[in-house]
Design a protein that fits this description.
Elements lengths: L1 E6 L18 H24 L4 E6 L17 E3 L1 H9 L6 E7 L19 E6 L2 E2 L2 H11 L4 E7 H11 L3 E9 L3 E4 L2 H16 L14 E7 L2 H7 L6 E2 L4 E6 L11
Parallel strand pairs: 1-2, 1-4, 2-3, 4-7, 7-8
Antiparallel strand pairs: 5-6, 5-10, 8-9, 10-12, 11-12
Bound molecules: zinc ion (ZN).
C-alpha cells in the first residue's frame, strides 16, 4: 500500500486567523509551518500504523516550501514540485490519496478562507458545469489515473465538501470557521488524534471508494473577479473568452495537474 498525502495550510489545526497563512506575516507563518507538519505527521503515522509501504507527501500551499527542516516524519517521502507530483500520480504505484489541511471552494459560507486557487482572481470555477474547488480539482487528476481520495482533513466545510464530491470518505474536521477569516480549532492533541484515526479508518475504504471520474472531453469555465484577469487569461493556449469575466477551455484528457487550470 502506497499513500499519497497532499497538503495545504488553510485547513491545519490552530491556523485560525487569516494572517497565519501568509509568508509576509513571518512570526505567525513560521508557527503555522510547525502546525502543518504536526497535522501531516499524524496522518503519516496513521498510515504506517496500518501497514503502508510508502507514504508520499506533497507540500501544496503557496510556494510549496512550507516544511521547516527536520519537522516532517522522516519515514515520509517528499514529493518535489509539480513534475514529481504529475509523475507520481501517473506512475500506477499509488493505492490511494489523502488531503490534509484542505479548505472549501470559493463562495462557501462559514468556511475558513474559502477560495479556489486564487482568492484574488478566481470567482467561480466549473468542470462540466459543476462548481468545483481544489478538493475536486485534485481528485479529478488523481481519479483520471485511478487513484481514489479516501480521506480529507480541514475545517468542517472542507470535510463536508470532500464528502459531497467523493462519497463516504474518512474525514477529520479539526476546526470550525467563524465567518471567513477566523476559525476555532479543536485542542491540538485531540485534533491530531482525530487525523491519525481518520487515516487508519480510511484504509478500510480502499476498494470501496472509487476514483473520482469526469467525462472527457471536459469543459472548464472560470468566472474571474475582474475583467482584466479574464483578458490576460484569454491569451493562454486553448483559453477562449465567453463573457466579460468568463473564460473557457476544453480538454480532451489530463496529462498534468496544470491542465485543469485556466
Ligand atoms: Zn493554501
Amino acid at each position: 500500500m502506497n499513500i499519497f498525502i497532499m497538503t495545504d495550510m488553510e485547513g491545519i489545526t490552530g491556523v485560525d486567523s487569516i494572517d497565519n497563512v501568509f509568508i509576509e506575516s513571518e512570526e505567525h507563518y513560521i508557527a503555522s509551518c510547525r502546525k502543518l507538519t504536526d497535522d501531516i505527521n499524524a496522518a503519516v503515522d496513521g498510515y504506517f500504523a496500518t501497514g503502508a509501504e510508502k507514504v508520499y507527501v506533497e507540500d501544496g500551499h503557496g510556494t510549496g516550501k512550507n516544511f521547516l527542516p527536520g519537522t516532517l516524519d522522516e519515514r515520509a517521502i517528499l514529493v518535489d514540485g509539480i513534475n514529481d507530483y504529475n509523475r507520481l500520480t501517473k506512475s500506477g504505484t499509488l493505492t490511494a490519496a489523502a488531503m490534509i489541511g484542505t479548505h472549501a471552494m470559493a463562495g462557501t459560507e462559514n468556511a475558513f478562507l474559502d477560495h479556489t486557487q486564487s482568492s484574488k482572481s478566481w470567482f467561480d470555477y466549473t468542470i462540466n458545469g459543476r462548481s468545483c474547488g481544489e478538493i475536486a480539482q485534485s481528485a479529478v487528476f488523481l481519479g483520471r489515473y485511478d487513484v481514489p481520495v479516501i480521506m480529507v482533513s480541514g475545517d468542517i466545510a472542507a470535510c463536508e465538501e470532500g464528502r459531497r464530491f467523493l462519497g463516504d470518505i474518512a474525514t477529520a474536521p479539526v476546526k470550525r470557521a467563524v465567518g471567513r477569516n477566523r476559525a476555532v480549532s479543536l485542542d491540538a492533541k485531540a485534533a491530531r488524534a482525530l487525523i491519525r484515526q481518520a487515516a487508519i479508518d480510511s484504509v478500510r475504504l480502499i476498494g470501496k471508494i472509487k476514483p473520482f471520474k469526469i467525462l472527457f472531453p471536459a469543459e472548464l469555465r472560470l468566472v474571474f473577479q475582474r475583467t482584466d484577469y479574464c483578458e490576460s487569461a484569454c491569451g493562454r493556449p486553448g483559453v477562449e473568452k465567453v463573457g466579460p469575466r468568463t473564460a473557457r477551455k476544453c480538454i480532451a484528457d489530463i496529462d498534468s495537474y496544470l491542465d485543469l487550470m485556466i
